[in-house]
Batch of 2 targets.
Target 1
Amino acid sequence: MSKPHALRGVLANLISESQSPLTPESIIREFRATSGRRLPACDLIKVLVSISEKRPNFAEVTKEISHILQNKDPMYALLVFVERYSECKPVSESSSSTSLSAMGLPHGNKTSDVNSAAGSVPTTLAIASTSTILTTSQNVSGSTRLSLTQSQDFPTSTPVNCKKATESDTTPVVFVRRGPMDRNRGAGKDERNDLSVIKERVLNAVSDQSLSGYRSVTNKTGNSPKSMPNDLVTLTDVPDEYRTHLLWEYYKVDGDKVPRAEIAAMPLLSQESMLLDELLHCLTGIRESLLVPQKPIISAVGLAKYDTDFDIHTHLDRSLTHQVREILPLASYFMGVQKIIAATDGLGQVMNSLNEALQELTHDFYLIIVQAEQELRHNRLTLQKLLYYLQPTMWVMHEVWSSLVIIQLSDSRDAEVLTYLHERIKRLEGNKDAQQLIIGLVRKAAKPYMRMLQMWIQKGVIVDRHREFLVVDNEVIHRDELPEHYSDDYWERRYTLRDEQIPSFLAKYSDKILRTGKYLNVIRQCGKRVMPTQEMNLEFDPTSERHVSVINDAYYFAARMLLDVLLTENDLMGHLQSVKRYLLLNQGDFTMQFMDACEDELTKNVDHVLPMTLENLLGLTLRISSARNDPYKDDLHCELLPYDLVTQMSKIMKKGENWQAQPRLDLSGLECFAFTYEVKWPCSLVLNHISISKYQMLFRQLFYCKHVERQLCKIWKENSIARQFEPQAASLYRAAFTLRQRMMNAIQNLEYYMMIEIIEPNWHIFIEKMKTVENVDNVLRLHQDFLDSCLKNCMLTESSHLNRSIFKLCKICLKYCEFIQVSSSYSARVPGG
């Protein structure tokens, strides 16, 4: 008796003893199922317990099998289970025949008995009706799922199909039981059997003579099963680790073939019956003698790399050969899909999700083969009928195969796969069935991507272990631990787009997606809880634009919430008004009182100026001027910059990175002085260091002009000295005083131009636009536009050469003032001039 018969025979005896409604085939099918479709280990143990609890060594065997299931393949555990009970009670040939009949194998005409037995399977097995074989398989929840067909006599819903037995394999089964010490020793270490040995056992256990034509005949060679070499199968071109659950790909079996009747001597109907039997197995990747796959061409490129050609037996009738050639491309498509599934396993969440959808498609394909084999066993199937039934499947499978091959050849991954499948949908407008299938694939493949997108636009969080998402987080440390001026680049550089990971259907909304997550991230860092107004279930549906509405709703929610945080809770406009009041000299009385208080200190060399003195004078001035009512006056501070205005302008305009590390020049305190304004997060996003530096440039030029104006006003009182001079000498002083008046007019007109004609109109435009702003990015853009416009028109840009002329003019005015003051003091000491 063969090993498959022994396996099913032992199970049949146990089922008979326990009066269980299960069948050997249903148990084997569940133990050899893939990991995603298999019952949990605890349920598998329950199945074995239900049929073996009457045996004397029941407890010992159950404990051993439980341990094996934790570390080994379930099929290996089933083999050990059968081995233990086969030693307790040998299985006879008659019992084996009974089990074959009970499973519905072609041992007798007992299909009706099998169907009645299948109808009595308990609720732990989910029976799939044959009416749903050609439709999409449904998901069965929990541990109550075991895919079976309505007729339990077809163990062909997995890659290795059961076909009609032509001859019995009389090779005896030899099991060697391990002793208790061996068992303990094996449990104490992590065993790992040779994969080829496990593969041979699985093939022997589940094929039920499907590979009987490939086994060596012991009667010819005289070798016992123990002495047979361990080279049952040889690999073709796919790594062995990909074959553990699904991919068989026409294994080539070594050894002599079981003798068959000469095909040319058989009648046409017999040829067709044998050919149909082998064709159904060929469609699922099992090598046969009449349909032999050609050896893969290693140098093949393009679609041919994933194509399989077949050699058809030359003695077959020509009419049969012609019909078979029309069906065989389906086997090539199916096997190409399986190769790609195996090759892309574990290459990211998108590819894994796509492979899961393809596995469901594979399951439906197996159900079609099951239905066809059922028709064949009832002698109702012909090649012409099979071709008719499979024609729609061939068209759809060709589309899936060609799409996957193109993806694989172009080495597309993640968003590129979604982009290609989405574009493929548009090209299939004339093929509704294929289009619907691709729509289903892209919908399922996009699930992990859309899950990451949902987390980003709802919570501002990126969960992207495989770097598949379109937004990348460049943060490496916590914001509180960042350098002093990190906020300058926070908004632009913290989160950026990864262009190669943007699917085509999200390309138009990528900027909105980026900003939505940014807003939520800032809100959360402000200590506020992000609470969406409604739960959003984001899924990609190529037939609708629902995901667009979800993205828009999330964007508007985040934009309104952050604007409320900035404008209402943190009073951004109040801070901007304070900056304008102090750094743009809009608070006139404060400016004059501060210059009066600090004039003596600022005329010193910058190395002798005491910053603490300036801070004390600033605080005193703020409290005696009208600025005392400003709630943000304490955010204003004094700063002595280590560079002059020209250097600062050059560095700011060129965006130099090390512009603060310049060596100190020989400057006066007045040339280095500037106000600075410090704000907290999140207002620092708008009033960041670059923006404050631009305000300082405007302040330093205005402040310097104010100082020159004050010096020119001081020498006005020297006009009275001219009355004491003789007419000739007085005329020289009058010319000097006329020059002073012209200097005064030039400086005052320059101040008027900058403050009244440039700053005020631009500020008014900025305030009006801020009333209709919708998001923080617009706030940043409007604020930067205001500052850049002021700098440009105040001649404080690198492209403008007038600023240097203005500085020279101011210095000339100061030198003139010094000259007049020195001359006046000298004239006062010398009577008569």
Target 2
Amino acid sequence: MGELFRSVPMTMIRLLIPNEAVHETVHEIGNLGKINFKDLNSTLSAFQRPFTAEVRRLDEIEKKLNFFRAHLDEIKVKDIPKDRWLTKEQEKEILLEDLEALEGVFEDTENDLKELLKNEEELKVQQLGLFEQILLIEKVNDFLLNNDETLEIDFPKEHKTKEVDLISVPLLEMDKSSSDEMKTKTGLQYVSGTIPRERVPILERILWRTTRGNMFLRTAEIETKIKEFHTNKFVTKTAFLIFYQGETIGDKIRRVCTSMGSNLYNIPENQNERNRTIENLRNQLQDLKDVIVKSKNHKVESLILLRVNFPIWYERIHKEKAIYSTMNLFRYDQAKKCLIAEAWIPEDTVADVRHCLAKSTEASGAMIPTILDIIENPPKSSVPPTHFPVTEFQKGFQAIIDSYGIANYREVNPTPFTIITFPFLFGVMFGDFGHGILLTIFAIWVLMNSKKLGIKAQTDEIIKILYDGRYIIFMMGLFSVYCGFIYNEIFAVSMNWFGTCWEPRNNSTVLDLKTKTCTYPVGVDPSWAGTTTELLYADSLKMKLSVLLGISQMLLGCVLSLLNHIHFKKWLNIWFEFIPQMLLLLSFFGYMCFLIIYKWVTNWSHREGQTGGIHLITTLINMFLKPMGMKSDQIMFKNQNAIQLVLILIFVLTIPLMLIPKPLILRHRAKKRKKEMGFQRLNEVSSSEDDNDDKNKNKRQDHDHEEEFQFSEVMIHQLIHTIEFVLGSISNTASYLRLWALSLAHSQLSKVFWEMIFLTTAKMEKIGFISIFIGFCVWAVLSVIVLLVMECLSAFLHALRLHWVEFNSKFYVADGSIKFEPFSFKEIKQEAKNYRS
């Protein structure tokens, strides 16, 4: 927990890596996963870096991997026998295999897979075509064998003959006659095909306008739905038969049909030929099915081979790309013939890094070892990264803080406190024993299925949010159960856990205490439920609790700011920020908390003139308006007027104490430092030390980065800070009243759903069980949607705001630090492992 409270101490190092050992060294560093490299080529573009060609080459190989991955879902891991998976020795061989040889394997595998997919597509298209053609011929037979139908075409005058003026030929009779004879007499031809049903009206209109009515269209819907290959959807198609005269019109008809997405087929004119064609097509279709089955088996075998090799291929290629991308951060030294790298590492890992470098030198066979140089005084421009070692449980809470801002180096981390306060404040707003149980059960289900959800989270953003926040949801559920137990609410119904302290007075509706010393052991007494003063009691209790919790958390934030000031040795901030802030908060808001608790623990029934208690709001207003003139019936304790006057004076004096002294002292120090810097620069100019010395270089860089002191800017900044804290203390306290508002809203909504929906339907005696069942279903659905989903999200967002604005603003700076991101293969190995499961 100590490392979570403050970030891990960092050490800056410089590495001098020989050219022949650089690849192996970076590989071992990736396995170690504890070095965060700096970019020494930040002034160079991506195309000017030394290993750009290798990264581009690996990008092309990665495209092949992405192509393979798109087809892996067709083969499930559980369907692959265990003996087909690669052994550890085989995986090690692939990891050590030459990259060019592996690239050749990828090229061959990609070509084979593309050929298989192309053949599969062609076979399926051919299969669908044969099936569609069979259905079309059957419909054409229905057209031509219908004796009741006649074909009437009114030809243009220039095409009329003596033998044929108006054709009125039964279709069956036309088919029985010789086709050649018909063509000779009429020149009649036809086009047949299929088209999606919704496009038929459009096709008919376009054909009519294109041919000027010189065609005859017959359509019939195909009852069997046909699956389209490209969309993989079943569609309803319509068979059509178009009669026309003349090749010119025929070409127009074909072009229109093709443009409308129809499939055209050549249909024999003779009935016997059509029957034989159907028989042949069915035989071809059966043969094609056998070919498709064999092709599919071959594809499955190829995909199994791809599936068992893909995880290790993925790991190897992504490791290589990560290595060369990291090497692009190094600077090449022409004189020393080596690569220079600078990095940050945790202080306690120096020995591990040295061992890693020695191991890489031995593995690469380099004659010159990699040199590690610890930079004792890094320049101020090089800000150490912030690193908090977190467990899976802590990771979600740390993500909440990181969303607000990355902590400054060695600054107090709010996460240890957020782990408790965040779900607790959520529980205060969401407090219901029943809803908390349901939320906890859901969180337990997510935790039990975290392995499966972790795999899905890589591609689904919603599941990723659920997976990352699984422990947060679990804690929120537990604290909701706790607060619901304190509120004594389970689905808006109070439970008499320990026996009430109240009893009816002479069988009336008025309740009296059983004994004067009776106290309900835990939480709210159930007798308050259903009384006329229930809402007033809950309103007062929850509002005062919200104020107490809010001011306590703000005071905790101020105490944490003291720890920051002590650690960074900012003594001015202690005297002229922390102390005045604490006095300001305690003099008014702390006093308000004292009055709340004092009123709770005092028995007002024995006080003359104050049996109903004292209104705290009136007391606090009169504290400023009438500090010495409060009436006796408003006095809560002895010497209250004098104490309040002292508190007001402290409250007022803290404001100039925060505003004035600090800027004046900083100006005095700046003038003094300016004189000292003048003498120091003269000494540096006359110094004969080597300019390449790291210590002197860092000093000069520090001088360059020092800004000239501007008193006006410091004064304005302090003025803004003072106004923000004074006004913020009031607004922040009021902001914590959202705990009261949301808790009350949640309770009343639960009560409305229970009484107005479930109990109302349960009282319908005429309908009986049916009304109870319907009422329960409606109540359950509304409870889940409104209370468990919407209210849960609302309480989460409000708890988030209270931590980001009201709590963190008191001590958490987070003004531009960088997160410690070591070069590591951990994520790559984890993703490769996921492909095996």
